[in-house]
Amino acid sequence: MDKKYGVYVCTGCGIGDALDIEGLCDVPEEEGLPVTTHPFLCGKDGIELLKKDIKEKGTNTLVIAGCSRRVNFDVFNFDGCIVDRVNLREQVVWSHPRSEYPALTEEQKDDEEHFDRLQMLAEDYLKMGMAKVEKIDLPEAFKLETLSRKILVIGGGITGISAALDAAKTGYEVTIVEKGSSLGGYASKLRKQLPLQDPYEELIPPVIDAKIKEVEANSKISVKTETIVARIAGQPGDFTVTLKKPGETTEFDVPYPLPDEMKVDENGKELDVEQLNEVYNEYNKGKQDILTLDPDGELFGAVILAAGWKPVQLEGDEFAHLGFGEIEDVVTNDQFEALAAKGKIVRPSDGKEAQTVVFVQSPGKGDDDSDFDYTGSVTSLVSLKQAKYVREDYPDGKAYVIYQHMRTPGLLENFYKSIQQDEGIFLSKGEVVTVSKNGDGLIIEADNTLLGEKIKIKADMVVLATGMVPATVDDPVVNLAYRQGPGFRDIGLFNGYVDSNFICFPYETQRTGIYAAGCIRRSMTMEESIEDATGAALKAIQCLESVNRGVSVHPRSGDMTFPDFFFQRCTQCKRCTEECPFGALDDDEKGTPKPNPTRCRRCGTCMGACPERIIGFADYNIDSVGSMVKAIGVPSEDDYDEPPFRVLCLVCENDAYPALDIAGLNRLTYSADVRFIPVRCLGSVNVIWIKDALAQGMDGVFLLGCKHGDDYQCHFVKGSELAEIRMEKIGDALSSLALEQERVAQFEIAIDEYDKLPQIINDFVEVIEGLGPNPFKGF
Amino acid sequence: MTEDKAALASGSILVVGGGISGLTTALEAAEVGYEVFLVEKNPYLGGRVAQLNQYFPKLCPPTCGLEINFRRIKDNPLIKVFTLAEVEKVDGTPGSYNVAIKINPRYVNENCTCCGECEKVCRTEIDSEFNFGMNKVKGAYLPCEMAFPARYVIDPQIIGTDDAKQCMQACKYDAVDLDMAAKTINLNVGAIVWSTGWEPYDATKIENLCFGKYPNIVTNMMVERLASPNGPTKGKILRPSDDKEPESIAFVQCAGSRDENHLPYCSYICCMASLKQTTYIREQYPNAKIYIFYIDVRAPGQRYEKFYKKIKEDENVFMIKGKVAEVSEDPGTKNITVVAENAVTGEKVRQPVEMVVLATGMQPTTAGLKLPADLKYNADGFIINDFEKGGMFAAGCANKPADVVSSNQNATGMALKAIQTLVRR
């Protein structure tokens, strides 16, 4: 677009009182840009002025200097215009009072001793905004050539069926693939199920059959049983899916990335690209490469992963004290359910009626009051349900539930209470010490119960409330034809569950367009699974419609930009492919990345990773930020006797930047020698910006972003972590330039820790002052 | 390829309640491509979670997710937000509801720049509702620092006073409009999602626990405010009677919950909330003794159990299985003695502490105030969803007690249920 610039300076909210506005206006005027001031730019009058310029003067590139871009976002939004907001309020005048940063007297203005730190700050920010708009463009949406709106549901249990029905009811075509021979999953193996709605008191007959009938009657749903996914290739809106029978081998089985130990030769030396390719092909012999699309593959737009769980396999002698594996009549809740579904409950050992059954909720060794692994409130509830089976089968039957913590949260407390009413069910806290044989029955010893310190119960059977292991624990299931590998990354954090790390955004994972639901995410009751399925269906549909509009999904929902690559200069270093938190890039046999824009979440981690600096977005790129850095004035001894220090801070716009704003709102003050540039994510920070800053004489650079580690707060998962790794590497480069490593740092800050900002900032500035000026200054 | 809207139906969705569930429903529906009206009775969005210091089990600040959600609203012209607004009347059937919404006066218009001049001149101080009355705010105030919309409010209490006039005169931007009156707007929507949320159970009703009588007994929601950097004590947990740093603290679980005389159900979040709050205390007071009196520790699932395990490693955290029967105050020291029967040993425990936290539960907002719409409620006041009938749905804690993760899952799903109502048209 042909840019017509306009610079607007708001003098309201204390800006005009604190700053030399005339001097500020000289900045754009010197560049030949028209500048207008207004006492209240966000008011009706001010907006009219802007609109008039847009209409009459054809202004389409606006630099608006006033408040933070986080406020008045709606009033300063003009269709078809590039707008940059220069934050003179929160980050200049509100955080740097004149009482601390006095203005210069007339005499001081012309000497070489005094300078106005605050005015310098404001002028720099204005210059930076002007430099930025020159280098950015309005985005154009990325549109797929073909879009499939069909949804693939993996797993035909209660979750998959519910998701399919919900998507179909909303008007979308769905295919369910189920690896078993019929629909229903675990839900069809039950005698009864927990209540699904108020008053949550009684067990109900399984609902699965009715749901299956609904699926069969719905023309939008097709079902493929005895089918699994061989591979899912492509990207949201355009996935090419190869299906196959379980156990079958096909050329479109997904290839696996090389394990690390195969990436080196026998001497431990890293293999080169060609060698790697050779080993990779050998390792994946008989499989087509991920970039080869199956000509017979089916197209889907989004995927719902509802592959569910499997009963835990207790191994070793960890539970020997409970008799498991030794005594036939000690079974798991899963085995007990199978017995109960068959008919009257009888002992596995001799087929005798099991009139007295003890349910063990926690393995109970020593002080450990934990439940079994992979359990949840559902397993507490299932024990209660199964206790009820005993009572259904035998009028004089007795069920004992020994628990450490009865976990029946929310309204399901009603079910617990209804169980308490049953005089044949005994519920007690306790540690089960041993289970042993007693004639042809069993004897259970428990300690610290509510019934007494040490009790012994004679029983026919013991049932252990064991866990539900997600299918993804040892199988990628989705078999993604992604260079980063076939499964979800980093799910070890969640013990193999395909869960989200975000409390606020439970469906967000590292694989765009694939949404998990049900017990593959967490142990859940059927009620929870059905609800979860609806949510996942919404997310799948939302992803399709976002792809259709050419915009990003969460967290930059609606963003029309996407990374653009200048391939001629690509050196095939693979860093972008490897570092993208969302696996958006697949490289070819030479190592050239193939972008998949609809997998991309627009964080810019690829841009930060690229040593050749060939990746950028229309409105955010190496040049736009680089030019902002270059626009910062770096006074030297030629200008002043003791020039001020200059420090650059690249600040995460999601958390740290808002924290700075709140610091300003609270009038917290910090050094005026620091220049902040917001970045989409610290992952997008390219070290060239830091090198450039130091090369132009800035004295220090720091990054301010989200916490990382297991409980990471980075909205793009890995950004702040990757940035820290890059910062460590830059340290070596600095020492080769004889610059101290301390000149570059990274700090973690949560959005609510704005009160800690002044100290973090000032401490860093102090360190830099201690190091003295950058020796490159003035060159 | 040209944009293809074939899959989208026409019609818009009303979401009532702008807490985390309402925000989620509104955003998720709007990002599919539907027009959404979001109505919130407070002058700001965020609801209960805006008052929390951190979420369990990640110990991350809720404002982090709220900021993203607010940005999503800013970037999405399909969402229209009304604050200080309440639904007055709903007529119609699934697919077409006529809704009357009353918008109460804020007395501050869109000219507000948050400069804070009105607050400076205002002399009247009122109890901060946001901080449960633990401090005062001016009669002209910003509801909270991250308030969205970022705009001041003039409290109705100062309307008509000289103070209000001072506020008006102090504003350089003509933002204070003391003549602003309530108005009613009418909307036609295809579906309604009620995410009216919850209230902390009124602890004064639990007479044996003496909340309101002894100053050093506080509720768990108050602790969230005390621990928040933007709270009444700037994040320092101090006991109310003398601002002393507490050396011993007792948590009373199920304060009102799982109790036929109060809330017969389990409030879902209080066990995890107390475990979380022990981390707040531990961070500030490395040696404080923490006693947790519980019936069951409801920390279900791999992730919560892991969190609970970590808390148990702290040798100054004592878990006592037993419901607290009574409390008493030492009039001299203002310390509290908590009395409970240890359910396992049977012995009576008398534990003197410097501060007591009541883990009060959640009561649906609709327990007291019934909504002006044809909805079914359970005995406790939670809205029962009727998916057969469709059209109107309850999301999050309006439907049942839940944590934030489950509320958001539920709220995401309810966005789809609402969309289905439009599609069926």
What would you say this structure looks like, in words?
The complex is a heterodimer of chains A (779) and B (425). Chain A has 779 residues and is α/β, with parallel strands linked by helices. Chain A has five domains: 1-138, Rossmann fold (3-Layer(aba) Sandwich); 151-254 and 290-309 and 471-549, 3-Layer(bba) Sandwich (FAD/NAD(P)-binding domain), CATH 3.50.50; 313-466, FAD/NAD(P)-binding domain, CATH 3.50.50.60; 564-615, Alpha-Beta Plaits (2-Layer Sandwich), CATH 3.30.70; 620-779, 3-Layer(aba) Sandwich (Rossmann fold), CATH 3.40.50. Chain A is built from 20 helices and 30 strands. In chain A, α2 (21-30) runs parallel beside α6 (117-135), α6 runs antiparallel to α16 (622-631) and α7 (158-169) packs across α13. The longest helix of chain A is centred in the C-terminal third of the chain and has 24 residues, at 526-549. The mean pLDDT of chain A is 96. In chain B, β17 and β18 form a beta hairpin. Chain B has helices at residues 20-32, 62-74, 117-121, 162-170, 220-227, 270-284, 301-312, 404-424, and strands at 12-16, 35-39, 79-82, 85-93, 96-103, 125-127, 136-138, 140-141, 153-154, 183-189, 191-194, 198-200, 217-219, 248-255, 289-294, 317-321, 324-329, 336-341, 348-353, 355-360, 362-364, 376-377, 383-384, 392-394. By secondary structure, chain B is of the alpha/beta class. Chain B has eight helices and 24 strands. The model of chain B has no long low-confidence stretch (mean pLDDT 96). In chain B, the strands form eight sheets. Chain B has a five-stranded parallel sheet with strand order 3-2-1-11-24, with helices on one face. A five-stranded parallel sheet of chain B has the order 13-20-14-15-16. In chain B, strands 4-5-10 form a three-stranded antiparallel sheet, with no helix packed on it. Chains A and B meet through α12, α13 and α17 of A and α1, α2, α7 and α8 of B.
